[in-house]
Design a protein that fits this description.
The chain is of the alpha/beta class and 262 residues long. It has 2 domains: 4-202, 2-enoyl-CoA Hydratase, Chain A, domain 1; 206-253, Lyase 2-enoyl-coa Hydratase, Chain  A, domain 2 (Orthogonal Bundle), CATH 1.10.12. The protein contains 11 helices and 10 strands. The strands form 2 sheets. The protein has a 6-stranded mixed sheet with strand order 1-2-3-5-7-10, with helices on both faces. A 4-stranded mixed sheet has the order 4-6-8-9. Helix 5 (147-155) packs across helix 6 and helix 9 (206-219) packs antiparallel against helix 10 (224-239).
Length: 262
């Protein structure tokens, strides 16, 4: 059975971490497969939303410590060091650079690398069984996959420090209070809610959604005036798209728009 599943249904691509017997702990091959799946979804014009989730009762328990303890896998003594330090194709970098909107379907516990992966998505919907465990300092490491950049921006400096320094595990409700997830859903309604939100996003003009995400991402590092100018330059080509024309017609005719991504 593949350790990573990739499925397209309508305009939604679902990427599923698939090692349920290890709570979807990340192996070396999974990292490569995940990056390739994310790139494939971003390049596919039929895909408008990417959903990332886990199989079984967990989202992702982090890097596979069992493999590492035996000297194999990521972090193990037997793992070969790369000839040069290059993370350009690593999942956290690829995920951050995606223009397609990403939705994390947090079906269960996410720990360590799994927590960073969840935080790297644009939107998070959590089952009421979900948890986020910032267990890095309890394992002798640090949030190596975007967490040190993401967490302070999501919850503020002081709260991020408390969570990261203590290695605390947060319940779904605590995550909602802190703003780490967008909503918490009863587990029996979880998949339905995730799909409903994905479909709601996918119904909008995909080029406009992607441009909006791109400008928001760049705006995290830009000054206000610079961002306004960049947004204007993104707006001009959108005015010439069929989707813009369709959006205006649909508004005037009082009907839902039918966007083509052109």
């Amino acid at each position: 059975m593949s350790e990573l599943l990739y499925e397209i249904d309508g305009a939604v691509a679902t990427i599923t971490l698939n090692r349920p017997d290890r709570l979807n702990a990340i192996s070396g091959p999974m990292l490569d497969a995940l990056s390739k799946a994310l790139v494939e979804a971003d390049r596919d014009p039929a895909v408008r939303v990417v959903v990332l989730t886990g199989s079984g009762r967990g989202f992702c328990s982090g890097l596979d410590l069992k493999d590492a303890a035996t000297g194999q896998g990521i972090g193990g003594d037997g793992a070969a060091l790369p000839p040069r330090f290059d993370l350009r194709s690593a999942p956290p970098i690829v995920l951050h650079q995606l223009d397609k909107p990403t939705l994390c379907a947090l079906n269960g516990a996410a720990a360590g690398y799994g927590m960073d992966l969840a935080l790297g998505c644009d939107i998070r919907i959590a089952s009421d069984r979900a948890k986020l465990a910032a267990a890095f300092t309890r394992r002798g490491v640090l949030p190596e996959s975007g967490g040190t950049w993401l967490l302070p921006r999501l919850v503020g400096w002081a709260k991020a420090c408390e969570i990261a320094f203590t290695g605390r595990t947060l319940s779904a409700e605590q995550c909602l209070e802190l703003g780490l997830v967008n909503r918490v859903v009863p587990h029996e309604l979880f998949e339905k809610e995730v799909r409903a939100l994905a479909d709601e996003i996918a119904a909008n003009a995909p080029l406009a959604v992607q441009a909006t995400k791109r400008m928001m991402r760049l705006g995290l590092e830009d000054g206000f005036e610079s961002n306004v100018h960049q947004v204007y330059l993104q707006l001009l080509p959108l005015f010439r798209t069929r989707d813009f024309q369709e959006g205006v017609r649909a508004f005037l005719e009082g009907r839902p728009p039918r966007f083509e991504g052109r």
